[in-house]
Amino acid sequence: MAIISSVSHHGEVWHSYLYAAVIRCHWHVSLFTATLGRNIQEENGLSYATRSWSRLPLYKQQRHVNELFNSTSTICSYQIIAIGTLGLLELRRILNVLVKDCDPRTAYIVLVQIHDAATALRSIEKVVNKFSSQLSRRRIEIRLLALAFHVKEYAERYQKLPLRVDVWVPIFPLDLPVHDENDEHHKYFDFVIQGQVDTQRRNYSGFFTQVQRQSKALDRHRITFSIVGRSSDCKNFRYVRSPQVRVFIGPQYMPANLFFGLIHQAVGIIPLFRGDTYYKSKQSSSIRTSVLTRTPLLASQRLLKTHKYIPKEAVWFKQDNETDLGAVLRIITSYPSDVAFRQALFMRRQQLDRLAEEWYINNERTLREYARLLEQSTKQ
Fold this sequence. Notes:
Largest sheet: 7 strands, parallel
Helix content: 40-55%
Number of strands: 13
Number of domains: 2
Radius of gyration: 22 Å
Structural class: alpha/beta
Strand order of the largest sheet: 3-2-1-4-5-6-7
Strand content: 15-25%
CATH topology of the largest domain: Rossmann fold
Shape: elongated
Mean pLDDT: 87
């Protein structure tokens, strides 16, 4: 199996491919990345955050993407090729080699990851259409790999080509501290807003207005908020002068081991979605970060309906008539003591732990199904 990653971010997605293929399926896997020269595994800290299982696979199997594209025989040697964060150039070059240079008797599966189906579908279809006649004469199957169920549903509903769409949940084990019901590592109840800082994605201004209005209540109940992520224009957050808000923002993401470790110490993640995109066609990093770090989401009924696989017992439930801040205050004050709250938090972490185990198994099944299809095609 070959995994192609053309960007330095979204490393957690290809780590999920690596974990399922190498650790769960015991396959031979190569990771081809355009950022090898910058030593990506040291820069983003994921190798340290996953050191219990990833050190050897990353050291042995990570190669520069040019090594793949400069050798048709190398491309032809991989029967399963997964293209990470969408690179249309990579897809075009891979298909061109498969239809022109590889043995027509060999079966191949090309997996094209989709994060936002609304923006990706037309571009993918445009590339695939150029090879439609050649693909029909070869044993080459192209599958879309949606990073959430609602992304899969959107792709199936609106795609113009009869491409099979599968679901892949980008999770893998992180080496993080173990929490228990007596965990009192922080005297505050800290909630995190994480990800790329983009006012088109999240309603920061409305949230900060709520924080300023409720500052006394937040102080009284020891509630704080951490904004963790990346922004090319950090000046946008200079107006945050609330003592209840900590800002961890820079032009680059902090190393992954620090990023996930900071979130893991929090008691909850607030998605703070703006608009309908994350409920219709796009996967949210807040969802996978919740499962990765075992940190419960502040989740409305709409969010749970969109992400049906997340049980209500794994989240802090936000009622339909509540603001995010109102829900946080209600949740914290509903417990008679810190110990009672920590016990409730621990139970939610356990639910997220079980959910992660389920999806390790489901991702493994998905890969093994591809192997079965290739074996069947070879016998025909």
